[in-house]
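Box 3.1 A note on notation
Throughout this textbook, protein chains are presented in two layers. The first layer is the amino acid sequence; the second is a token string describing backbone geometry. Keep the layers aligned when reading.
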Amino acid sequence: MAIAKAERLMNLALCLLGTRRPLSKRELRESVEAYLEAGSDDSFNRMFERDKDDLRELGLVIETVENLDGEIGYLARRDSNRLPAITLDAEEAAALGLAAKVWQQARLAGAASGALQKLRAAGLPEDVDPYGAHGALEPRIPVHEAAFEPLMLACRDRRPVLFDYRKASAARPEPRHVEPWALECWRGHWYLAGFDRDRGAERVFRLSRITGRVRSRGTGFTAPVPDVVTVRETVASWAGEIADRSALIRLRSGAGYPLRAKAVKVRELGDGWDELEIPYGHGLDAWLVEFGPDVVVLEPAELRADVVDRLRAVAKG
């Protein structure tokens, strides 16, 4: 059915683009083979109206013209549906080439290569090598998570999704019903930003913590999509990188080098331990847990309690 509809839309588009005068519904029905198979006038009218709307949604400009006899006709003028000439200098071509090269190891490799071929056909000079000026650069965006492609399509089509998500502090995943807004790669990990329906608020999800299959839900969005989705800033905040105070911890000597890199002050305690003052922001407890027995939180008390709770949850499995 999908192939038949695509062929029908293509034939209708060719008819509308190929005519010099408006064509009536009757003439279009006689010109498009699929319309001849319509069982009744009502069936044809419904099919034609859907196809016309689909073509307009795809970007085809279809004009509706009424002749002197009051009959309605349709056509798609070539000048209204022709893209302007594309002119790219060497730097612009290189930028587009690098952008396409990023996706060569991902599922979008075919689309990226096809886009470059279209640019060639549209007038990109053959002697301009999109990769040549920056041949030493090998950009890559790793996409290993199975959830990436269905989430990317859901963001594009504005479709809610349902998936199981395991938080860093949780022993087992929980279902999440999300209206997806945007995907972004930050420090080697992919994140999804969207509206969590169950919690009634914006949330950011790390794709590597999504388990099982991403299922689509046909209903539309219930919350407005913000004009700017700040995925990286939100992740940085939740990761404790936006700090508004300090924490005091004990760190085993020779361990925890990422913590040492962030330390404001370091003091040797002896017996194989150091005392560090580090920036404290939301999510620091989850990060400290990753260092296990090499870290002991001294203050503040609420941070110490959060770390202890997370360690107990991990111990329970």
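Residues 2-18 form the longest helix (17 residues). The mean pLDDT is 80.
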